[in-house]
Design brief:
439 residues; binds pyridoxal-5'-phosphate
Amino acid sequence: NIGLKEADPQLHNLIEKEKKRQWGGLELIASENFVSQAVLESLGSILTNKYAEGFPGHRYYGGNQIIDQIENLCIERALKCFHLSPERWGVNVQPLSGSPANFEAYTAILNPHDRLMGLNLKDGGHLTHGYREGHKAISSTAKYFESMPYFLNKKTGYIDYDRLEQDSKAFSPKLIVCGASAYSRDWDYKRLRKIADKCNAYLMCDMAHTAGPISSRLLKTPFDLCDLVTTTTHKTLRGPRAGLIFYRKGLRKVTKKGKKINYKLESKINFSVFPSLQGGPHENTIAAIATALREAMKPEFVEYQKQVLQNAKILGAEMTKMGYSLVSGGTDNHLILVDLNNKNIDGARVETVLEQIDITVNKNTVPSDTSAFIPHGLRLGSPALTTRGLQETDFVKVAQFLDRGIDLTKEIKSRTKGNKMVDFKKQLELELQNNTKLI
Ligand code: PLP
């Protein structure tokens, strides 16, 4: 049995290069993180060899005695990590990632063409929250279900709950999804529950981005008021790339007539994951989730999450001091969304230039944007660099680097002939070829 270096030097070399890239630059993508050696070991373990269709105790293949113990351990830790009692909540740990987890949750409770509402993509929502462009369904969640977005209040940059309430009365969705990919504020679950109850809809939270601070009790918990909670495990939670679906057990809701209903979410969710949408679970990933969850229950993890939020606040404050505008004016969580409109530059060009100076960020739409390809926002997150040990004073410097990178982008833009992104990229390439020192 030979190792990768010997067996496949070409690939080994590429992985080494990527390792160097990851460790050599400033990683500010809000959805990324660095997992521990222990998580990597579980992920790269021999568990990848095993087929385990079904659930613990009910498998379609033999030889799953140990696998059952691993999956049960992951389930137990997932509930404990989010402070849930196994009598009231259950969790499916098999979703392959966040998008499949969401589709599986929808498929469990909705019929084709049932209605759902989620935060508009350009306002910070995720594709899987029903994204469509006009009549064209971009996400399958808009193709197989009827979706209607809700929005940010353009003045405040916070969720426009009043408009959501009005629109949901007219649209009458069967599901309202909260949670987002680029929203820097906490959620008003009480208000959302009231809105959902008025139209008799399920309330689901996709806490993919905020699972870490939620487990550390630094943000409000969605579990008190939602029926379903989905998450990825690889963002603030610092685990492998995967998803989880939490479902409320037993009697759920009082209808207008005072009746309690058992929605049987457990059997619906499990059936939707397997056999409806997935086959054999990736037990090596499930083991790695279990490892990450164990880490997430340690006091050091809570300290880490506190630092993540503190670093995001400092970054936001420093950017604001330098004249940048933030959507909603600040942050409650691990990310900030910079609106570059007042700086006369867009996020796409800035992202391209920052990449050349080893700062990784992502362009993002802001509410005023019409194009997702050349948007005017920059999404910046603190989780990855906080894992690397950066603290408040370091983030002051990070803000300064960003400012210099943005200035540089403006300079290159001013030297570009033509207005298109391709012209800009050509100009950048030219300057790099001429060995211009960027910073
Ligand atoms: N939900 C939210 C809120 C996300 O931000 C993301 C990914 O960024 C997902 C779901 C999808 O996760 P994945 O990329 O693992 O499919």
